[in-house]
Amino acid sequence: MDDWRSYDDVAETYARIHAPRLAEPANDLVELTGIKSGWKVLDVGTGTGVAAIAAAGAGARAVGIDESVGMLRVAHSANGSLPIATALAIDLPFRDGAFDAVLANFVIAHFTKYKTALFELKRVLRPGGRLGFTAWADAEDDLARTWFELVQSVVPREVVQAAMDERLPWRERFRQRLPLEEALMEAGIRHVRTEVRRYRFQYSLDEYVEGMGTWATGRFVRSMLGESGFAAFLGRARAVFGERFADPVNDFREVLFATGTKP
Fold it and tell me: 215, 150 in Cβ contact below 8 A?
């Protein structure tokens, strides 16, 4: 793995395991944002294109941008008609007011300079345009505790914590409704609304463990252990999860939605 912070090396696994399950909250995000047929929509941090495809399903003309070429390559394979581009949220290659709506699906925790990113998202919205966010809001459960127990058995807790603070600097802040509301209002977004919805994602045990390897902690451990060491680690993880949990796994996750309007 060249850079554990990138999704490039795990894009195909992410698309196979996570994308089908994340379609439900993506569809809900499109609905809550109020996207209408014919609207021009930008999906920031589109990844494999889940939210952009949901917007297109509502009749919008969606465009997806992401910094991961690997994720965009998979998005193009899944939907060759979806316009995509490599770009950063803090420097969007679009004119002012170019879009009727902007979506940011599970990406705000990744923004190193979230205030700059929010300014850019607002800039490319037309007056009266809509902005929609999602963020993970669930607390640690037995599944997550078991995974982190395994991770910390091979990489010291403080090392993992420092890496996550670098890659996901706002993951804890934006798990909560009030800080996300405040951030959007400080950026000049009005009529901000938030709500939390609960989802059940079902995986086979093998899928669940393989899928955990695509998240930030999994990618970091892979970079630390190397390919053969990480394969052995996943084998041990499958054995531990098999001892503690039923197959298939029911993973209950809470998602925070935030929407607003550009004045």
Answer: no
